[in-house]
Amino acid sequence: MGSRDGVVLEVDAVRMRYGDTDVLRGVTFQARRGEVLVMLGPNGAGKTTTIEILEGFRTRSAGGVAVLGVDPEHGDERWRARVGVVLQSWRDHAKWRVRDLLEHLAVFYRPYVGDRIQQPWDTTELIELVGLTDQAGAKIGTLSGGQRRRLDVAIGIVGRPELLFMDEPTAGFDPAARRDFHDLVHRLADLEDTTVLLTTHDLDEAEKIADRILILAGGRIVADGSPDELTRAIAGEAEVRWTVDDQRFVHTTTESTKFVHELFKQHGDSIGELEVRRASLEDTYMALVRRHESGDAPTGVLTLSEVAR
User: Model pTM?
Assistant: First the structure.
């Protein structure tokens, strides 16, 4: 397996077994340069295990993996300099100051600067990018939880990685910090051409930042597509609600635009409180997970046409 046609991450039938327990049961997907992938799934679905295999921190039981054209089990330091990692938690270096730690880490990337590896971020620019300018001189042990997560992101991107892995990066973020983080992800993907793979439990966050969403359940990818594609595939019907003369009506249809047009032809200005509601990503996610847990889902990776059935 190797990097080709813009594919920077290739996962083929990966399995992971601990003793008699299969955690991953044939995970397959790809990611392209500059793409933002969000992996969703209930606790125990295998999200963190998948990420750790791709980062080279865990040895898979079977299957093929190519990260930037390299098997992560055999990735050397030059390969690792092209990959960024934001762990779920990292509590070391409490006595270091923010600026000092980032400048120290940047030093390790400079020997690998070349055709594929850019210069590390300028420390002042990086600190501003993640929103820690006021804390640049603060000791890490004094940072709040949200500030600490911002620093974790800065540590992950200090070397300007081509591919960035983030495991629940916004845990502990307030709404303003989460919005800033979303802007940062879009900047990395759009301006730096960075490929991002992150896990989250926040479905609203996934819908806002993902180019593609992977839903993992029971150790398998059970759906793969854009937020809009997944929502339309699982629920082609829309629910139309309206009132006429203070009477409330509800109708389910697969052709909401045509139905609303006919509704206005029939009732005109008498219609009030009109609402057309399609399934949300949360509805889609819960339907897929419930379907898997009930045993109704087929094995292997589902295509969008299969999800729609």
Answer: 0.80
